[in-house]
Structure formats: C-alpha cells, structure tokens
Design a protein that fits this description.
The structure holds two protein chains of two kinds. By secondary structure, chain A is an alpha/beta fold. In chain A, the strands form nine sheets. In chain A, strands 8-9-10-21-20-24 form a six-stranded mixed beta sheet. Chain A has a four-stranded mixed beta sheet with strand order 5-15-18-19. Chain A has a two-stranded parallel sheet with strand order 1-2. Chain B is mainly beta. Chain B is about 0% helix and about 20% strand. Chain B has no helices and six strands. Chain B is elongated. Classes of the chains: A alpha/beta, B mainly beta. At the A-B interface, strand 1, helix 2, strand 4, helix 6 and helix 11 of A face strand 6 of B.
Chain lengths: ~900, ~100
Amino acid sequence: MDVLRSESTASDDRSTTPAVELAETRRRPGPRAKRLLDLYLAAYSSATNEFPYWYTRRYMQLDGEIPVVRRATALKEAFSHLTPTIYPGELIAMGKAHYYRGSFPMPWLSEAYYMAKEDELYQAALAKGATSADQVSRFGSGGGNVTASFGKVVSIAGKFGIRQEEVPALLAVARSWRGKSVDDLGHRYEQMVPGYPRKEEIMRSIVCMFDSGFTLPQGREVINYYYPLQHGFDGLLALLDERRAEVAGRADGDGLVGMNRLYFYQAARLVLEGIQAWITNYAGEARRLETREADPVLRQEYGELAECLEWIAHHPPRTFRQAMQLCWTAHVAVLNEDCISGLSPGRLGQVLYPYYRQDIQAGELTDPEALELLEVLRVKFTCLDCFASMGVVGGVLSGNTFNNLSLGGLTPDGQPASNELEELILEAGIRCASPQPTLSVLYDEKLPEQFLLKATECTKLAGTGYPAWVSNQTAMNFLLDQFGREGMTPREVRAWAIGGCLETSPCSWMELRLADRSYPIPGGSGQPTSVGVHFVSLPKILELVLFDGLDRRTGRRVFEPHGQPLESFEQLFECLQRYFSQAVEVLTRTNNIQHDIWRKNNMAVFHSLLKPDCLDRGHHIGELGYRYNGTFNIETCGTINLVNSLAALHTRLYRERAFDLEALQEAILHNFGYRPADQLGSYSLADQQKAEGGERFDRIHHLCLTAPKYGNDDPQADTMLARWEDWFCAMCRTYESLYGKPLYPCQISVSTHGPMGAATLATPDGRLAGTTFADASMSAYPGTDRNGPYALFTSATCWDHSRSQNSQLNLKLHPSVVQGRTGTRKLLELTRNYLRRGAFHIQYNIISSQTLRDAQQHPENYRGLMVRVAGFTQYWVELGKPIQDEVIARTEYEGV
Amino acid sequence: MEPDGHSHMDCRNYASLDVTRGICHRTKEMVMAEGAGCEEFEPLPRCKLCVHYEPAETPYLGRCLAEQDRPMTYPDLAAVTCAWFEGKAEPLAKQ
C-alpha cells in the first residue's frame, strides 16, 4: 500500500511545531481531516439542555409505566428531538449534540453537582461528601475548556460552556429530578449500610475518589457493533417483534424475571425507533443542505451523505463507508443513552475489515480513500466529551473519554489477527494525531514483524503516546481466570480487547455474513469495568494508619482508632490491611446499592441490545443479560508511593531504628520542613521550597529519600510490592458485586494521582504533602529509578500481572533514543523485553522534559501538543497543573 | 449584541460550532453566535417562534400549549425536529 510509507520513504513536510522534537519527518492529515481537526481545536467544550429537556418532559408524563418502558420512551423522545448539525466537509456525520464538542448533563443520574453553588442541592451534595473531589481537582485552563463564565456563556461543572438563555431551563429540569435521581435515591438507601458514616468520611478525606453508580455507571468496556451491522435496524425491529410475540405472557421456567422479557423487547423497540428518527433527521438535514448548496463538490458530498444515512437508518450496510457510519452512529447512541467514559470501539479494524476487503477487491474503494475516512473518524472520536462533575471529568478523566481502539491479537483459531486495515488505522493515527481514539496493540509473539514495526513507528512519530502495548497472553490468562466460571473458553478469550484506557475486557466472536462469506468479528460481551470501588488512595490509607485513623489534613476521623503502637512492621502492615478492608467493605456495599438503583430505573436499553446475549435472553444488563457479568472491581491509586513508603518504614524505622515513629509523624506533619505545594502552585517533588526552620527535618527526610526504592531491581523494595500484590489480588475476590460475582483488582491511576496526592500529607518515602503520586501502578516515582529501564522491568515483574485486570507502566524517553530505523527496532525490542517477562502494559512519552517545561510556560505555543498521562493521551493545555507537573517530573531515559 | 431572533445563532444557515461561534453554510465563514444576521437570514424554528409557546413570568422559561399538561419549555429551544411546531405569523417579534 502506497499510503503506508515507511520512515525511510516518507516525504511529507517537516514539522515546525514545538511539539515535535523528532528530527524525523512528521506526517500530516489530509486537507479534509486537517480542516475538521482545526475546527475541533478552535471549539469550546459546549453543553446543551436539549436531550435532558425532551427526556425529562416525556419521562415525567409516564408515571406508573413499567420502568424499562418508561425509560425507553423517554430516550426515544430525546433522540427524536436532537437538532441535527452537519459541518461542511464531513464524510461521517452525527454527534452527541448540536455543537462540535457537544455534550449534556443527565440529571436522572445526578443533578446536584452542576447546580449553582448557592442552590440547596449543591449544599446537600457538599454535606454528604460526594463533591469534595471537586475542590481538589483542577482543569487545564487552556484549550477548549470553559473554566470561567464570560459574556452570555456560563461555565458549568468547571469545564463546559452553556448559553445563558438555556440555564433557567437546565436548572428547572434538574430540579424535577430531585429525590428521583440515582444519586439521591442511592443516597437514601446507602445510609442503611452499617457503618455508613465511615463512607462519608472516606469520600470527604479523598481516601476514595468517586461513586461510579451515579457518575459514570457504564464504561471502560468494549461496544459491540455486530447486530446493527448484520441485521440493520429494520431487521432488528423484526427480530424484536418476533421475540416479543414468543415471550409475551410466558415465564418459561423463570418465575422471577422471565416475564420481564416482554418489557425489554418492547423497550428496545422504542429506543431503536428513536435512533432511526435521529438518523433520519440527520439525513433530512443533509438533503436540505444539498438542495441549497451552490458549490457542486459540497452539494454532491451532502447528497452522498444523505444517501448513506438514509440507508443505514433501516438496512445493514453494504459498503465500508456505510459500515463505518453505522458503527459511529451506534457508538454515539450508546454514549447518549448513559453517562459513559471509556466506551471503546474495540478491534474496529477487524470489525470493518470484511467491508474494506470487499470494496477494495471490487475496486470501489482505494487505500487513500479508506485512509481519509479513518482520519475523519479520528476527528469525530476526538470531539466526544463526557459531561460529569469536575471531580470526575477533571480529577479522574482529565477531560478524556478513553475510546480505545485495539489492534492485533489473535483470531479465533489462534492466528495473527492483524490486517491491512489495521496498518491504515496506524497510519491515520500518525497523520491525524489526536487524543481519540487512542490505540493499543494486543502484543502477541505471533504478530508479524511488519505490523509490529508499523505500530512502533506510530508510537514514535505520532508524538501522542499511542499505541500503548499490552500483552495478549497475560490478558487472556486474567480473563480465563475471572470469566472461566461464566463459561469463557480458550477460543472465545481471543476476542478480547481493551475497554477504556487500559481495562482488559471480555469479548466474543460473532459470525458476520457479508455477500457470500462469513467472518468472525470480535465485539464486547461484558459489563462495564468502570464500576466498583474506585479509586482507593493507598498512601492515604497508610497515612491514616500512621495517625490512628485521623485525617490530620482535615481534622476528621476516618477510621476508628486501631490503637496499635505500631512497634513492628508486621503490626503496621496488619493495620494497613485492616483499614483498607474496612474501606472496601463499606464502599462495596454502598456502590452495590447505587448500581442497583441504576439498573432498576436507568438501565441501558440500546447498549444492552447490542451486547450478547441480551437479544437472545430477553434481559437487559441489569438482569444479567450480558454474557459476562463479573466485571466490578477494586481500583487503587498510589501503589508505588505505598511500596516505597513501606520499604522506607521497614528499613529505616523498624530495621535500622534510624528514627522513631514519633519523629517520623512530626516530620510528616511538618512536610519534612517544606512549604505546602498548593502555596507554591507546584505539584512535583522537584520544585518545592524549604519553609523557614525546615532544616531540622533534613536528616529524617534524607533517610526517607535514600531508603530502598522500587524500580531499581532492589529486593528490599520489590518484596514490598510482591507482598502487597499477593495480598491485594486475593482480598479483592472475597467481595461480591450486586450481580453476585467476585470483585477483582484494577490497577491504573488515570488522573487520580493528582487530586489524591493533593489530599495526602507527606509520605514516608520522602514525597511531600500535596504533591502528585507516582502515576499508573508500575511507573517508578519520578527520579527514583536510577538503574535504567531493565532494572525497572525486573522490579515491575516481581509479581504475576495476570492476577489483576491490568497494571500500568509509563516510560518517558528522550526523542534521541529512538531516532531512525535503528531507534524503531530498539523501541520494539524494549517493549518486547518487558512484555516477555509477563508484564501487562507499557506506554511511552517520547518528548523531552525541557519541551514540556516550555509548554507549561507558553501554552499558547503548544495547542496541539499531546502527552501520554496514564492510559490515555490528552492535549497538554487541557491537563490540570498537578498532572502537568507530574509528567514533567517523570524520569527521562536518555538511553535504553 | 443581544440575541433577538436576528442573530446568526437564530438562522437556519448557521451550524453551531460551540456556544460562541458557528459556520454560516452560505458563506462558509466562521461567525459569532450573537452577531447580526445578514440579508439571507432565515429564522431557525424555536419555541419562541411557535404559536403553541406561552412565555412564563420567569425569564427564559415558558410553557408548551401543544400538549394537554402544558409542559415547561423555554424560548430558545430549537424546534427543528418538533412535530408540534407551527410558526407565528410574525416570527421575529422580540421576546
């Protein structure tokens, strides 16, 4: 394929943007994608009341209706009334709202967080602790974030702009959900959990970051496009009618929920009708523009777009473009149905391959045309915004939506699954560098070298940190262990993909018939993995152990005093386990209640229809309609600061007796003699300033800093990691989700290492109060990994990664390390070396700290600069300063 | 300029980019949402231009009389997709 020019033959222009430090050529998007991407870069993140208004208007008229039918009718009303907007040059149309970066709140989940501060709902939210995270989360002030009101634009939830004339109606709609939202109902019932006040203290002290039940009830999972692709929407309606007739009035041996199948099929029908109307409205807009357009090229494009939309509103797609448009439409429909972060398209290159192959062979599509479509699809994904509270969107997500596209892996019969279309997807990722969809390679030893080199080239040249690299084998081992009890087989496990930024997600093979051929295509078949106990700050738990359950930052008691003198390391570790378990216990039970409310009143209808086996079973997600349901998990943050702190305590406090506990406590309370980070406005260890008289803590701080550190192949630190992982991975499985399935560990930080660090005092590893934790779960704390990447790899793999849904290692390389073709091979070998040790994941930032510092000082020069944070790529200017500081401070390797 | 029914954002040729700006389909130029519409201005259906719309005392709120329960609505809600929309005889009267 000519469009897949390798490094040695690329002839595009050399970049002049400061973001690109590589001396190698940087490829550019095609003119169409560039225009559309430029529009994105110029656009504010904008919210509208349209969808919530129509949803609420209809919902409130249906008091007494069966809940799933009531919700579906409201969804149909909302989809049917969305105003279609089409922009000149779009080949793939439709979006969440009528703005380019449009989104909207869903007050039926939670309404309090975006009400005006003086509003009583907001005050109530403060009182119950759920919005404390908002106060320590900071958005990047640049880019498209509307962090302050201006003119007739009102800033809402710290990120979105809404037209002033919509605000009164927005608040009126929100008020109508008072006492009815998942947040409000869940709060009423979660208070019945024994020890509930502890949960409030846990949230207030930022021991835990957010409640998934009413913030992001779904996500970090893989969508499934199979049913619309195979049957089309009219075909699905016919299937639903058939099934509805079969089950109406029958329990078929299931006296509990057997009768519910009728209501699910009816609900699915209603939502499908709404989605058809939504597509048809866009088709109508395209026809309207066609009739009025003077430019013959644009007029033809509008006509072709209308034809595409008119077809897919009813029928299975016949072409690559139609299939892509249908996948995109289904994707946005799911995102409009619920508040979701991390809805991944999965192995889209393998899903669309049958259409690509067919059109290429028929001469109806060329690779440059396919590449252009893939580029503009990147822009569409980048435009996705997720409306949630500042604590969630800023503190957890950094504004990202985690639509992760997976590449590679194996076919059902164990052969390499990569294909030519996936190489085009990588090329589109290089040329049209943008945060979404981020890319992940499911690395398997069987994958062809050419494909792996192409992916490595993308890691280098896109300048965005994608693709991430994950081990196919380690992931499959985890999945078989977790989902074998639900019937997962060695053949089926090969369908897996990354959901969200880095969540190993169960998928299934579906047989797609196109023309006279059958293709097994992979698609999601599991519940969300964004759900459960998220995120627990491990360093904060340790801090509470050291201070007998009292949060010395807020002065509030979080846990009952353990009453232990902490005379031995074993005693300290036992207290750590006890507090952690107490937190998980109350958080699991309250979270289960939230999600139970969600599944009763706000269940996914369209999303359920897409996922096997809801259509066959007649049950939505809340009634275990999905094939795999054991996806709730316990997610932690700050692993390496915990490990380093345990190593310091074990070495300095208990073995060497270099200081006593009281002295350490005093040093921590005095931040080792340094000024608070928030006073300086700097959140990395490197840029802190001594307080007056702080020298008296120099000795103890020095001892803490020079204690054994993770990342250096030092058994004194690594045994702490192995011990923690051994206990943590086992304890998670002793807790049960509302679906009666065991929980499992999830170890990624996303962006929580910023706000959670902000709420944590200095730690025994020498980290200072308020500064950001080490990112991810396997990344070394900045500056403490001194023995090179291979020593870091040895440390990181001292435990079995397949016991956890994920682990995460971010590495920052100076661009000079990977220059040229030799550098590409070196980078691939580095990746291989890590993954062959049984590791799960590695990703790279190939950029110098000097550039990042300049970008922080002169953001106006770096609008297009992207960095890898922790499982996702984001525009630098849209990151909060704590995360910016942490990325700058990461150890920069100048040789591998 | 105050949004008064003559702004770019109230025009059928306007594709809203964000809360401040949009693209004029006729000129392909970026225009400000609150900027004054041109001679080609064509009103975008909104509740405030509908015969079924009744303003409320609270600014920016009203009622839809098309349904029996007279649900709350608001003047600037786009009605492009509303089956009940019926334009007023003089649609550009100020609110």
